[in-house]
Design brief:
276 residues, alpha+beta, Nuclear Transport Factor 2, Chain: A, 2 domains, 7-stranded mixed β-sheet, 4-stranded mixed β-sheet, 7 helices, disordered N terminus, disordered C terminus
């Protein structure tokens, strides 16, 4: 069975209520339950090396670090991606990177040769005079080949709105598996419908949500929400509606995929209505 890694931080949902989350205080008390400390230390060094190579425009280092299948996805252009060749041209060409600070990072092992790194970083720079700096929360996927780690994908959502977009046509996506996207779109829809029903069908929840599921969000990047706490969080809230668009699935391994999408939901609880 294909495992679906729900990277909710990729969704354009910046409020603190996403998927009826537990309170920030509750999340802080649980800490981070899904990271590998040793792997985090190793991957943090790689993330820093990656950032340094970008700042120095070090083409040789980037060729080693960035995998051939690398793509970048950002939340404000959910319908497409930036392929490696275009990303490399921008990075080594018009991008004037001034600084890059990793505020937080945490690594989770997905397979012996595959790791997801959630991170919060603060970057400053311009492209052709347009501000490209941001405080960004995202996830990187690293794959080990011949004993060396390479980044194969980066998904970013900006916590601020400082970036200026260029008025260029949006290229068609190059990283989408159409058949897989449709399969997982249906599963995502079923999960949304289960949330609207308050996750009252435990068998359905068990079918759709893995026992090792965790949720991470941009407003509390140092913490994760484990599965039991995430399901319980729906108790005080009523999920009125869930709308999902721009689903894009990419196969990472035979039994693992990542899905990016835009989620719009409306919840109510304690007499209050909330939407995002």
């Amino acid at each position: 069975m294909l495992s679906v890694l729900r990277v909710s931080l990729l969704i354009v949902c910046m409020s603190t209520v996403g998927w009826a989350q537990p309170t920030r205080e509750t999340r802080q008390s649980t800490g981070s339950t899904d990271i590998d400390p040793k792997l985090t230390e190793e991957l943090q060094r790689l993330e820093q090396n990656f950032a340094s190579a970008i700042l120095r425009k070090d083409a040789e280092a980037l060729e080693r670090i960035v995998a051939p299948e690398f793509t970048l996805r950002v939340a404000d252009i959910p319908q497409s991606n930036l392929p490696r060749a275009m990303w490399m041209r921008n990075t080594l060409g018009p991008l004037k990177a001034e600084s890059f600070q990793i505020v937080y990072s945490g690594a989770r092992k997905l397979a012996d040769d595959l790791v997801a790194v959630s991170h919060l970083h603060d970057s400053k720079g311009t492209v052709e005079g347009r501000n490209q700096g941001c405080v960004c929360y995202g996830v990187d996927f690293w794959k080990k080949r011949n004993g060396n780690w390479q980044i194969i994908a980066r998904y970013n959502v900006a916590s601020d709105r400082g970036r200026e977009r260029a008025d260029h046509p949006i290229p068609p996506p190059t990283d989408v598996d159409l058949e897989l996207t449709e399969t997982l779109r249906q599963l995502e829809q079923q999960l949304g419908e289960a949330a609207v029903r308050g996750f009252n069908d435990t068998k359905e929840v068990d079918r759709l949500v893995g026992s090792d599921f965790t949720l991470r969000t941009s407003d509390a990047p140092q913490t994760s929400v484990p599965r039991p706490l995430w399901v319980q969080a729906f108790g005080p809230y009523k999920m009125d509606s869930v709308d999902e668009r721009y689903q894009a699935a990419r196969k990472l391994a035979d039994d693992l995929a990542v899905v990016s999408l835009v989620l719009t939901q409306r919840t109510s609880g304690d007499g209050r209505g909330m939407s995002q």
